[in-house]
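User: What would this chain look like folded?
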Amino acid sequence: MTKRWIGLAAAALLAGCASYGGRGLVAGKSVGADVQTLMGTPAEQLKLADGDAVWFYPRYLHTYAVRLSPEGVVRGVEQRLTVDNMNRIVAGATSAKQVRELFGPPRSVSRLERQQRDVWEYYMYNAVQVEHFLYVQFSGDGVVREVLLLRDLKNDIGEARE
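Assistant: Here's the prediction, encoded as structure tokens.
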């Protein structure tokens, strides 16, 4: 009886790992119901100008975006919190809407009153897989004013002790 419960627990754990990034979804075949069965309820769903939808699944240092056609068929799944995507954000030109469509919901939102800016925070790896905070600052007109990628200091504290 105990072995049976251990087996069920292991199967559930493996299923959870497999669904972390949408592994098992097939572009052109899988549909929205398959996505929800595998990955759960999305944190956010956005409709794009071309009629497609993007469902976002934030997962600690990753945010997976599942793009669906207007008919609900999966077009693709990708990890959006990347340095390449961060480099697509242009201060003075990129809008909050564009950032949201690129990265999905921020981990947190704060306000810099003195600068009159809203700040969206994401948590991601840099190019060499070190944990960083990504801060995107917006002025009142919804345009990006500054993008900051700052190393998480908890990594430095661990190195200093060794």
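Confidence is low (pLDDT under 50) at residues 4-18. If you want, I can go into more detail on any region.
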